[in-house]
Amino acid sequence: xxxxxxxxxxxxxxxxxxxxxxxxxxxxxxxxxxxxxxxxxxxxxxxxxxxxxxxxxxxxxxxxxxxxxxxxxxxxxxxxxxxxxxxxxxxxxxxxxxxxxxxxxxxxxxxxxxxxxxxxxxxxxxxxxxxxxxxxxxxxxxxxxxxxxx
Length: 150
Hints:
Blueprint: H1 2-13, H2 16-40, H3 43-62, H4 66-93, H5 96-117, E1 138-141, E2 144-147
Antiparallel strand pairs: 1-2
Helix pairs in contact: 2-3, 2-5, 3-4, 4-5
């Protein structure tokens, strides 16, 4: 019961990027559980955990804004579809490798989203990528900077 209240509090107080990070965390936790259940031979619990992971990924997929996100959004759509297929394959074939691959991909994506939330504590001299550089995603128009969004 306290755990549900804690999760509800986190969801209600999260910003949009924070919500994405929470969904990634849920998907990763579900895959970890599925892998443990696979190793233990608990078929029903494994299937439930994989279903939760697929539902989380479907939520991420459904929240993509292709109009605003452009190519990045389309690539994420393809990657989410691939991850869902790997989870389904791992469940049907009762194999760990596809589940491990899905978990690894989600961890990489989660780290990238978490980096968007991390405060910039390093100086530009300490981190070569701490300051934005002009490029196709950032153009000046009458003194205003336009950035891409995903």
